[in-house]
Each structure stands twice: as C-alpha cells, then as structure tokens.
Amino acid sequence: MAACALRRGLLSTVSKYNNKHTHRILSVVDSSVGFEVNRPRLQCRACGLPGAVQPRRFMSSRNRPEGKILETVGVFEAVKQHGKYETGQLFLHSVFGYRGIVLFPWHARLYDRDITPPMSDSKPEPPGAHGSKEVKGKTHTYYQVLIDTRDCPHISQRSQTEAVTFLANHDDSRALYAIPGLDYVSHEDILPYNSTEQAPIQHELFERFLTHNPAKSPPFTARDTLKAWQEKNHPWLELSDVHRETTENIRVTVIPFYMGMREAQNSHVYWWRYCIRLENMGNEVVQLRERHWRIFSLSGTLETVRGRGVVGREPVLSKEQPAFQYSSHVSLQAPSGHMWGTFRIERTDGTHFDVRIPPFSLESNKDDKAPPAGYTF
User: Where does this protein reside within or beyond the cell (predicted)?
Assistant: First the structure.
C-alpha cells in the first residue's frame, strides 16, 4: 500500500476475502501534494469490526507516456507486535512510503518524555543508569536499512536520503561523505511484505550485502561483506539513544550519533551528526519557521544558534504530509556536551508557538583509533 503512494495520481485498492468478510485498503494520492501513507486499517464490510491482519497483495504504478500502469510489487505480511524483523526483510515505510530492506537491528534506549507509566513491551534501565537523563530509557528496536533508489526522488522533500554521513579518512577535519539510501527505521514504522523477485530492491549495495536464498524466510541472507562492513563501522553506525517529546501535537524525535575526533590547529575537534523527525499528530496544518538551538560544551561554553527553517527548508506539516526528517552536524572542542532548543511553528492564521526539542547528550565514548571504514570491504 505504501509503495503505491509513491507514484503520482494513484488510486490503489487492495482486497482480501476471509470467512465471508472483505478487507479493503484504499489509498488516494493527488500529484499536487505528493503522496499519502497510512498504516492499513482493516475493517470488515459486513460487521464493521476490525478484521485480522491477512496477507494482502499491493500494487505500484509506473508513469509512462500512455498513462499510469499498476504493477504488482508483493504481498503484505503480518506486522510483528513482538520480536524483531530479520536481515533481508522487505518492508514499506509506514510514514515516508519507500520500499526498503532490513540489514540488521539496533537496540536503542528510548527516552520518551510523553510517557510517564512504564511501557509494557519495553525493559527499563537499571536504577541509577544515565542519572543525568530526565526520564528512564526503555529498550526499543531500530533497523539499519537500504532504501530503494527508485523511491528516493519521491521522498526527497520529506526525508533526506543521504542522511548517514561519515568523517573522511584524511587530514581535512571538516570533510564528510555520505552513503546514499541508508536509513534508520523504528520497529513500528515497518510494514513487512514479501516478493518473488530475486532483486526486489534497487540499490548499489543490495547485491554486495545480500544474497538470494529461497530456502530461507525471508529469502535474503547476509553476505560476509555485510558482516565485515557492520563490524568495521559499528562505532560510527551504532544507534544508542533516541529522545522524543511532543508539544501541542508536534512530536520531535532526535537521534544523535558520534562520528569521531579530528585534529585541527593543534586542538581536538569532536563531531556528531543528529537526525531529527518532526511529526504533526493533529489535524491542524502548521509550518516550521525558525529554529533556536543551545549547545553546551564540556569546556564550559554555551552557544546559541537561531535561524530560518532547517537545512534550507520551512516544511509544512499537514494531515496528508505529517512528517519531515533531516540530519545535521555539530562539532565541539570537548569530548562531550548537550543540545536542546525549540522550533518556532506557525499556524494558518499567522499565530506562532514553540515546540520543544528534547535535550540530548553528545558523548564520545567510542574508540577513536580506528577510522570509519566506509565503502571499504
């Protein structure tokens, strides 16, 4: 269903019959507003009650001069409420709608300032752990994934497809490089499906990292190159902490990553990247207008940064296009620090309100001796 929404002007209908009850998913997309992706909400047309999750065939369209054509992509699988998805699992992103495949999982600590009682499906941190945090961390599964390059043009206005960056392996302390089509996806954003294609995902690393094995489920297994790449780059890829907070129906999620240390002008410069996702959980259309950051360094300095928008954009968050995700970077001349701030949001009537960015730590507790391996296999 979500892959359908990546194509312009698409009306996709998915039907399944089960015990005389018909389950149907409709996704209507207008080319003027991009694409709309929602989780499947199955309802029995006979009794009006939610039905069980069933395998569902879904379609995608390809724009051709003679018109729009629907093509079969695969069959939906049941969403996992417990456990984790395995390497090689095909999925659709429930928010951004792209096709992807799971490389390997990460077990992160989620610091959710919106939740006070314990979450039933999470394990709390031991007493005293991360005492500087405002809330206790709960374990939460994320996945390192590859994005299908055919879908990147359709999501580029909503999510950066070159967000995973590394420090270059040379003396230029500010040089960065990115691996296009690499992303981190939360467990609840995975809509799993299966396909009979031997190469259902188009990405230059797909065949380097994965091999088709029809005897397995899912039928794609990790090559030695993926295992070696994961091991070499573990300190620079690792997702450890996730911070989340909601203000007036605008939820902000922050994930910081330590990138390493470089020497510049006889001093050490420590680098981090941070990924931010804004989601409009309500029905009101709003627009991000300004950012206001405060960056505290262990050296004792406090820097204030104000500016228009983020990464050169002022995204509109609506019910049809509820989310925007981007990555940026920060460097300190100290091995640790903190960041926090606000986003200035504008309503359609011209009034404004500030959305809190949850405070998060910048830690450099990784081994700096081994540089990132990047594309080295």
Answer: Mitochondrion matrix; Nucleus
